[in-house]
Amino acid sequence: MKIGYPCLNRTLSCSSARTFRLRSYSEERLVSTVKNNLECLTNILKYNKDHTILFFRITSDLVPFASHPVNKVPWQRHFRDTFARIGRYIKKHDMRISMHPDQFTLLNSVDRSVLRRSLKELKYHAEILDLMQLDTTAKIQLHVGGVYGDKTASMKRFALRYLRLEPTIRRRLVIENDHRNYSIADCISLSRTTGIPVVFDVFHHRVYNNGEGINPSLNHVCKTWHKRDGLLMVDYSLQKRSGITGQHAESININNFRKFLQSTKSYDFDIMLEIKNKEQSALQAIRCARTDQRFVRGNGHV
DNA sequence: AGGTGTCAAGCGTCC
DNA sequence: GGACGCTTGACACCT
Known about the structure:
The chain has helices at 27-50, 75-78, 80-92, 112-131, 151-164, 167-170, 184-194, 202-207, 214-222, 254-263, 279-291; strands at 3-6, 55-58, 96-99, 139-143, 173-176, 198-201, 233-236, 270-273. By secondary structure, it is an alpha/beta fold. The chain has a single domain (3-289), classed as Divalent-metal-dependent TIM barrel enzymes (TIM Barrel), CATH 3.20.20. It starts with a strand and ends in an 11-residue tail after the last helix. The structure holds a DNA duplex.
């Protein structure tokens, strides 16, 4: 079991997601921003290693406008060595990496131009992980997408397009249940017809489910991950206490987290903590998991 | 220096 | 069929 956090580190004073407005686009600006972002990513991974945080989600903003037509910079070639060096570091320290394209990436869109842009965006994400020369346990997680008034048809469209993806994308793509349209049962059903691994989002599942419990879901979901995919990934977050639905909490509730670990102890998985104070929650969670031998899973480390 | 409207990209809901 | 909420961090312009 590895525990991690997404994209940003609030302790370090750098950001690996620096960007700029399209209006101020220039090749120089792009190159200097990517250079900054890769340097910061290096710092974050070093921080993670020093604190034994072995799971991390790399921001989609690493290369601004990566899939935008305005961008003609061959950034892949330009930063090839840097990507390779970062990849070596990740592998050397046995870290797990994920990425999560944002809401505009929709594989099942009914709009062909949205699909076309989404494919470019997926290609970009795969390129990042390929340039780092990471194996296929490094995943790109995506929601199933829109419903477009016909869920069955929209799921079929996802399946068809997934199966036709170029292998460099398909081997990394996994789906995740969302809080409104596609439940964990829907994702499992899609996995049955396509073989795609399913990320289990505990928070979304609490908000939107078909009445199935966490453990029965985990039981199904962990079978969708094969050896080449690595350990099942779980997203863990909680509701902000103010009561506004969907917003992520500021910090982890360690008692609830302990209960979660305890109640799911027969399964092994890597946990991504989607909590605003990021690495602080990860540090707490790791400490919590370590204090109790019952939470130490199959591979002996948390 | 600090505050805030806006940002490449979409879906779903409400009217 | 148009406006808005969603969720989020950072830019860039404003005072």
